[in-house]
Design brief:
Rossmann fold; seven-stranded parallel sheet; alpha/beta
């Protein structure tokens, strides 16, 4: 199968070639023809398998072949994403694919001044890529016209449900025309996603190009057992000893990301953190520095790192295991993208064994355990507990206890 066989026009074929795509991925091969047919789509695919191009390419071509009055441009495509980073990634991809088409794309998210966004809507837009919260702000201000939306696309819908956006999405849908094509793309394909799809989609085509909830097949996974107090020491040792030039590290909390970043900097490793408390400008600048190699180690929380698209990222490290198993799949999907190999390491302490068991249960496979010389966990003592100390006293003590209670109650 080639992109030509999928029916893409010459402008899009040139854009695809310029992006370095040689042949379509399985999700693109299956989804693009169905979108051209006008079908609603429910698609489940691993991260890094080309989901964005799977919906962007056919939608761009349909809009280009059916132009409206350019003097009164109103949004015809609405793409919803769970995070600002993913909105930027999808918007940038839309612009890259459609660089030879006379279509306008804008990216809408919170945390920045709303007025430039309002100005872009006034000047006319064809495609809107947005996070739910800021889009609702525009809806309530009546600054965006939803009446001509032809496509509603939910990207990483599973994450939007996990983050509690279901009510926001339902409110947004109320503003949209009933006659539209709905495309729902998800990295994991859970029962909650299927229930949501049943309410949103109209006789959808079900596309699943990978086993349910599997990690990217191009990613080699390891678990390194280590005492909690020595995790940072082990991470620094790996980065320096293995001469890693680019590594994305996940922590569970914002505070943990800040603390680890400071510790790595003290170890002489150029590091930076991104999380929800950082402004969008800082996050964008930090990510750009990471991609350029100015920053060697990017420390991130799940929310901030969702949707990060970093070409040829070689290493992902779970400094803290996530307590939601599906988040593990998303995390390690930042590497091993677009057919390239990647390595995902998890630094697992004794207290995280339960999280690891749940992740392996989801993956339906054991993750290879590799002990690092000098960082092995201490063996737990098997000395039996002296049970005689745990026996309750008898006789006079009990009588004394009852007398004390009697005095207190009277």
């Amino acid at each position: 199968m080639s992109f030509e066989n999928l029916g893409l026009n010459s402008e899009l074929l040139k854009a695809v070639k310029q992006e370095g795509y040689v042949k379509p991925t399985p999700i693109q091969t299956k989804a693009i023809p169905q979108i051209f047919k006008g079908r609603d789509v429910l698609a489940g695919a691993q991260t890094g398998t080309g989901k964005t191009a799977a919906f962007a390419l056919p939608v761009l071509q349909i809009l280009n072949e059916n132009p409206l009055n350019k003097k009164r441009r109103r949004p015809r495509v609405l793409v919803l994403t769970p995070t600002r980073e993913l909105a930027c990634q999808v918007g940038e991809n839309m612009q890259a694919y459609g660089r030879r088409l006379s279509l306008r794309t804008t990216i809408v998210y919170g945390g920045v001044n709303i007025n430039p966004q309002i100005d872009r809507f006034r000047r006319g837009i064809d495609i809107v890529v947005a996070t739910p919260g800021r889009l609702l702000d525009h809806a309530q201000r009546h600054t965006m016209d939803f009446s001509r939306i032809e496509f509603l696309i939910l990207d990483e819908a599973d994450r939007m449900l996990d983050m509690g956006f279901i009510k926001d999405i339902q409110k947004i849908i109320e503003y949209l025309p009933d006659e539209r094509q709905n495309l729902l793309f998800s990295a994991t394909y859970t029962n909650s996603i299927k229930k949501f799809a049943d309410r949103l989609l109209n006789h959808p085509v079900h596309i699943e190009v990978a086993r349910r909830n599997t990690a990217a097949e191009m990613v080699t996974q390891y678990v390194h057992p280590v005492e909690r107090a020595r995790k940072r020491e082990l991470l620094s040792s790996l980065i320096r000893g293995e001469k890693w030039n680019q590594v994305l590290v996940f922590t569970r909390t914002k505070h943990g990301a800040n603390r680890l970043t400071k510790q790595l900097m003290k170890d002489g490793i150029k590091a930076a953190a991104i999380h929800g408390n950082k402004s969008q400008n800082v996050r964008t600048r930090t990510l750009a520095d990471f991609k350029k190699g100015v920053v060697r180690t990017l420390v991130a929380t799940d929310v901030a790192a969702r949707g990060l698209d970093i070409n040829s990222l070689p290493h992902v490290v779970n400094f803290d295991l996530p307590n939601v198993p599906e988040d593990y799949v998303h995390r390690i999907g930042r590497t091993g993208r677009a057919g390239q190999n990647g390595i995902a390491l998890s630094l697992v302490c004794r207290e995280e064994q339960g999280f690891l068991m749940n992740i392996q249960k989801l993956l339906k496979q054991k993750i290879l355990v590799k002990e690092i010389q000098g960082f092995q966990m201490e063996k737990q003592s098997k000395t039996p507990v002296n049970k005689t100390k745990r026996k309750r006293a008898k006789g006079p003590w009990k009588q004394k206890e009852r007398r004390t209670r009697y005095k207190r109650s009277h």
